[in-house]
Amino acid sequence: CVNGSVISNFPTAIDMLDLLNPDIFFKGNEYHLAPEGRFAGFEKEKDFATSKGIKVSFTFEETFSSTETLKRLYDAIID
């Protein structure tokens, strides 16, 4: 159960975590991968969350990359 979600224009989640101070910081299952398979700034986000007492949890549902979807659509139009 989620109490709310936020759209952020910040480049990382650190500013939002600092403003909202949630109990849990959720990330998709791709962030549970080895470091080379995920957003480079995630380690800083995770360290910040942990330092503020925010639990970091991962979802394990199927995920869809909006970047990959747009690339496939764009490639289909160009071809």
Plain-language structure description:
By secondary structure, the protein is α+β, with helices and mostly antiparallel strands. Helix content is 38%, strand content 10%. A two-stranded parallel sheet has the order 1-2.
User: Considering DSSP H and I runs of 4 or more, what fraction of the residues is helical?
Assistant: 25-40%
Enumerate the strands of the largest sheet in spatial order, edge to edge or round the barrel.
1-2
Shape: elongated
Low-confidence blocks of residues: none
Cα distance spanning the termini: 43 Å
Which structural category fits the helices and strands? alpha+beta
N-to-C SSE series? Answer: HEHEH
Mean pLDDT level: 83
Put simply, the count of helices is 3
Percent strand equals: 5-15%
In total, how many beta strands?
A: 2
Largest sheet properties: 2 strands, parallel
Rg calculated over all Cα atoms: 15 Å
Short description:
With 79 residues, the chain is of the alpha+beta class. Helix content is 38%, strand content 10%. A two-stranded parallel sheet has the order 1-2.
Task: Please tag this protein with its features.
79 residues, 3 helices, alpha+beta, two-stranded parallel sheet
Write the layout of secondary structure elements.
Blueprint: H1 14-20, E1 24-27, H2 42-51, E2 55-58, H3 66-78
Parallel strand pairs: 1-2
